[in-house]
Amino acid sequence: MAKDSHIKQMKKLFDEWTSLKKVAKDMKKEISPLVATETQKNTSAIGKLEEDLKTYASDLKKRDFYQYNCGAQQAHQKLDDVFGEINQFEEKISTYGYNAKKFGNPDLINTPVKQVENIKLENKNMKMLWEHIDMCQTQFQKYMDDTWENTQPFELEDEVKKFLQTLKSMKVEKKCNAYQGILEEIKKW
Hints:
Elements: H1 2-60, H2 72-102, H3 110-145, H4 153-169, H5 177-188
Helix pairs in contact: 1-2, 1-3, 2-3, 3-4, 3-5, 4-5
């Protein structure tokens, strides 16, 4: 008797499963246009984000902190502002990436992610350059304020050579005005 009960239960479950598969198939047909529309919207949004990031990266190179006359303090403040702007892009990437993953295109967001990483790296490198510029300028001012009797020419020369070595090892655009400005100042010393 228990065996017949189990068989009836199994048949009932199988019938429900078959019915559920049919409902799921019908539902998939019904919502597929909506899914296609949302997928297209997300794809378009990601494409626009890519273009916005290209423009942003290009415009970034025109900002004051690429100019030597900007000054270290102002350059640091402006570079910090860029990190805030990057956060806005990362929020969009998070949203669009979530949607892309849910609609079966997780790789769609890879290009903007790489673009933001490159911008962050460039910003970090510029921040390091400005830290080096600030350190060099501070030291050069100390040299100027020092008396001739206290000047140690060989130590000064070694220190300036280290400044130059550190500058040349930095991974920044060597043609940017800020780099060229400190390079010229170091060479004068």
